[in-house]
Write a structure and sequence with these properties.
The structure is a single chain. Helix 2 packs across helix 3. The protein has one domain (7-71): lambda repressor-like DNA-binding domains (434 Repressor (Amino-terminal Domain)). The chain has helices at 7-16, 21-28, 32-39, 47-59, 64-71, 74-82. It is globular, with a radius of gyration of 15 Å. Helices cover 64% and strands 0% of the residues. The chain is mainly α. The protein starts with 6 loop residues before the first helix and ends in a 5-residue tail after the last helix. It contains six helices and no strands.
Length: 87
């Protein structure tokens, strides 16, 4: 999957990976302020940072479905997993 920068997706990716902004910044090789600005939509990551974000995404086996599922409130996520499908 190719990472496309969107502030909310970047934050969800970081959360799915279980990293703080500081840890995420260290893994990518940038300052924590950069991660904060990206997540707040104040600026965009450079091409090198985007490449490193894609690498983290692959390492963590994260895809859009995981990011979208993470965006649901916890109760909705649990309901989706536990409710049987009706045919």
């Amino acid at each position: 999957m190719q990472y496309r920068y969107q502030p909310e997706k970047l934050k969800k990716l970081r959360e799915i990976l279980g990293l703080t902004q500081e840890q995420f910044a260290e893994r990518i090789g940038v300052r924590i302020e950069s991660v904060s600005r990206w997540e707040n939509g104040k600026c965009k990551p450079c091409s090198l940072a985007l490449r490193r974000i894609r690498e983290l995404e692959k390492e963590g086996k994260v895809n859009d479905a995981k990011i979208k599922d993470k965006s649901l409130p916890p109760s909705e996520t649990e309901d989706k997993k536990s409710s049987p499908t009706h045919s």
